[in-house]
Specification:
This protein has 396 residues and is α/β, with parallel strands linked by helices. It is 50% helix and 17% strand. The chain has helices at residues 5-49, 107-118, 123-134, 140-147, 150-159, 214-226, 243-252, 262-271, 278-289, 294-308, 313-326, 337-340, 344-357, 366-384, and strands spanning 67-77, 80-89, 93-94, 166-180, 183-196, 201-209, 236-239, 258-260. Strand 4 (166-180) and strand 5 form a beta hairpin.
Length: 396
């Protein structure tokens, strides 16, 4: 088989040219920035002294200060580390106007560090990633310090006013690990997810809690209510079936129908039966929520009750008790049933939370939890701004 050596030579020429071009370009940019910073430092010193290089003050005119050489300083930029000279006198030094006091890196580099952290890269690994771009070795402590500026954004998110036009509210919790002096500790995040009648969706709030008690959920719901979500337009609230949350809803939003998640209920049913009965019990329970109408669903439950009452009386009693809240989705248009009978929408967000936080293993403190969760939720909300759930805008 003949090989086209001319093509190989041309490809090699292009590769060498690109390496030479980009290498030379980076070098030229670094040199230009270096010269610009040094000229600005020199100019600031001349303005302060009122004298140019080698210029002497007139006889009898008092000197403000005298030159005292310079010192070198490193400045991390997207083009690498630039070492430049900072002019100084006996009493002060003159940083270029572009730099702030004690600033060691360009704002773009600081933002790169924050974004690397927010995308789930472990704190120690962020330094290695940034070093590939800038050549600067970043410590884990520096990464933590630079990400503290997100605290104000977290507070703004948690205190932002909410419009009272959400039609559906999904509530659930996700557990995270936080590092303590005595070892890792689990921290629960209570999360609220809203869906509007126009198909708009948004993660509305998250609150740290120690557990899913009624008091914890009441605090979360009270926060939503005080921020503006008073529930006048709410048509349905979906939950995983937590008893504390159900009790809290009766306090804050007693007039809004409550739908329990069938996925969580089916999981509970599967854990309560023997392995040999698992598949048959599951099939009979699925017939309830897959029924073509509310009457058929109740008929399917009665059949389930007759079949399994003798073997699993406690299971049947629990299902009968929860049945009204499990069947509320039948009161809505049929094309929404599949969406309104589970909390899968918010669970998919939790999958992303776990994926993004898994490399971190544990968080060093609760503030780190707030920062990364805010970043993940904010990215979801930004992505959803122009992507509505069209299913909720369709007519039955």
């Amino acid at each position: 088989m003949r090989r086209d050596y001319s093509t190989e030579r041309f490809a090699g020429f292009l590769r060498d040219m690109k390496e030479s071009f980009w290498g030379d370009l980076q070098g030229h940019v670094q040199q230009t920035v270096k010269e610009m910073l040094e000229v600005d430092s020199e100019q600031r010193m001349e303005e302060y002294l009122g004298l140019r290089w080698y210029e002497r003050a007139e006889e009898g005119e008092p000197r403000v200060d005298s030159r005292n050489g310079c010192y070198e300083r490193d400045y991390a930029t997207p083009w690498g580390i630039i070492r430049f000279r900072v002019r100084r006198t006996r009493f002060r030094s003159f940083l270029p106007r572009l730099l702030k006091a004690f600033e060691r890196r360009a704002p773009e580099v600081a933002e790169l560090i924050r974004q690397a952290f927010l995308r789930g890269i472990a704190t120690r690994a962020v330094g290695r990633v940034v070093a590939l771009v800038t050549g600067e070795a970043i410590s884990a402590q520096t990464v933590s310090r630079l990400t503290r500026v997100l605290d104000a954004q977290v507070r703004a998110f948690q205190e932002a006013a909410l419009a009272d036009d959400w039609a559906y509210l999904l509530l659930d919790g996700v557990w995270m690990k936080v590092r303590r002096s005595f070892g890792p500790q689990r921290v629960l995040l209570l999360v609220a997810y809203g869906i509007g009648a126009n198909g708009e969706r948004r993660l509305l709030a998250f609150v740290r809690a120690r557990g899913e008690s009624q008091a914890a959920w009441e605090g979360m719901l009270q926060n939503l209510y005080q921020r503006g979500l008073q529930g006048h337009q709410l048509q349905l609230i979906l939950t995983d079936g937590c008893a504390g949350l159900a009790a809290a809803l009766q306090t804050i939003y007693p007039a809004v129908p409550h739908q329990r998640c069938w996925v969580h209920k089916m999981r509970n049913i599967g854990e309560a039966v023997r392995r040999r009965d698992h598949d048959r019990v599951k099939q009979d329970a699925q017939k309830i929520y897959q029924a073509p109408c509310l009457a058929a669903a109740r008929h399917a439950f009665r059949a389930f009750q007759r079949h399994w009452q003798a073997l699993y009386p406690r299971l049947v009693k629990s299902l009968q008790k929860d049945l009204p809240e499990l069947l509320n989705f039948f009161n809505f248009p049929k094309h929404l049933w599949k969406k309104l009978r589970t909390t899968n929408a918010i669970e998919r967000c939790f999958v992303e939370v776990r994926r993004r936080t898994r490399p971190m293993v544990v968080f060093t403190n609760v503030q780190s939890v707030d920062r990364i969760i805010y970043a993940i939720f904010n990215r979801f909300n930004e992505d959803w701004q122009n992507r509505t759930l069209e299913l909720f805008t369709q007519r039955s």
